[in-house]
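Follow-up to my earlier ticket, as requested here are the two runs.
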Amino acid sequence: MADRGRPPDTSHELFELGTRRRPDIGATEQKETSLIAQLRELESEFREIGRTARTVAEGLSHGQVNWRPGSGQWSIAECLGHLNIMGSEALSSIDAGIHEARSRQWYSPGPFRLGFFANNLVRTTEPPARWKRNANHKFVPPSDQPVGVVGPAIIDLQDQFIARLRLANGLNLARIKVAAPGRPLLRLNLYELFVFLAAHERRHLEQALSVRRNRMLPKAGPARPGGTPQRL
């Protein structure tokens, strides 16, 4: 029986998340210029996140990656799937913001800063998690996912974020307002969104690594059954 309140199993769609098309927003106009310092720092963070993501599921079986350490806790695959789903939605918001900024000629070399609310949001998102949050039902991942899909998908996502950093370079990131993933009433500027996304990914990669380090992680076997864990 399907978990109550769980969205339809979309594991077959995760391959598409791992083969996302590169952005074409003004790509023909984009010149090879050095990233401003703040975007260079974010690029380094996304590259480091990609390197960490490679190690999370490396050498694990399907059963191990989909094993849940306890009731209400996510598996490694669910942590990665959650990031893939949320990240894909964020890309759409980022692309729309970049398109608007270019059409309105909103340019600025920075520097940019986090507002009071965004600063608190990032601080409470960074690991170690200070308290648990309810996951938006849109971002609750399938409970059984192929290791050969979710791993490459999260690595590809970092490449996508870096591609957007390059497209956003030189734009007035403070003026571009976008909806936070899963929170349409919460508006962040584009710089704040990039910083939040990096913090959010680190949070769930640490969560996935803690599952990998769990001494109860089975050597082999099927995924552990259980209800929909929704607390992060």
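Run two:
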Amino acid sequence: MKKKIFLLLLLLLIKGVLTLQITEVELNPSGSDSGNEWIEFYSEKEVDLGEYKIINNDGDEIKLSGKVKGFYVYVFEKQWLDNSDEKIILYKGNEKIQETLIFEDSKNNELTWQFCDKWEFKTSTKGKENCEKQTEEKEEPQEDQEEAEEEVQEQKDPQEESNEKNSTKKPKQIRLEEIKLNAKDIKRDKILDKKEYAIVVLVILTIIVIFLLIKKWHKIK
């Protein structure tokens, strides 16, 4: 039982790898639509297109032919795709393989609908990898941003440059002035200290004398 399940999964995996996919659609090319509309297909392995057919949103059917590997661009001989409310369904036999979104293109230029993780409307990458183009387009704004930053750096306000220069200057050394003490003031402080000391001693002696007199008076009694 496990072997059967494994083989079934393996077959489904191989089938997915071999499946043909629609990767880009040009609904409204520059100039006349007739003979200039096209669809891009992609397959990692060689596939027989005789097994496939495409149907548009009006129900018109085209059977494919030949063998392809990698990118393959099918150009319509006449106008087959509408510029709005259009989609394409890819069949392998009677099995639906892929159905696109509803497309609209009123630009009449080189913009196409491309699939890379999701459908996007951008500059054509006909016959080439869509995702690589997408990466390049993402990198361009970053380069523009770097150039803009460089221009801003070059156009700095002169006042800002002056402030930056001033901020880098060494701070001025503060000169400490010597404090000169007046000798007379020091002597006065010393004299005041001696007077205070003498008063304290006098008070202590007075207290001792009073204490002795009181003690003597008690003995006489």
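The only thing I checked on run two: The longest helix spans residues 183-220. Let me know what else you need.
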